[in-house]
Amino acid sequence: MENENAKSILCFGDSLTWGHNPDGVRHPYAHRWTGVLEATLGRDKVRIIEEGL
Asked: What is each CA distance from 36 to 19, 40, in whole angstroms?
């Protein structure tokens, strides 16, 4: 269940935002910078929305 008071952060960017790996496979969410940001700030406080191209 999401926290209704959590702030939403939209991350719009390139392949780094999407989590592109040189092997052509997407990195797991916990390893992408957006996932690390969400974990660092607190999943109960923020919701990261990834919009990578």
From this structure: 12, 6
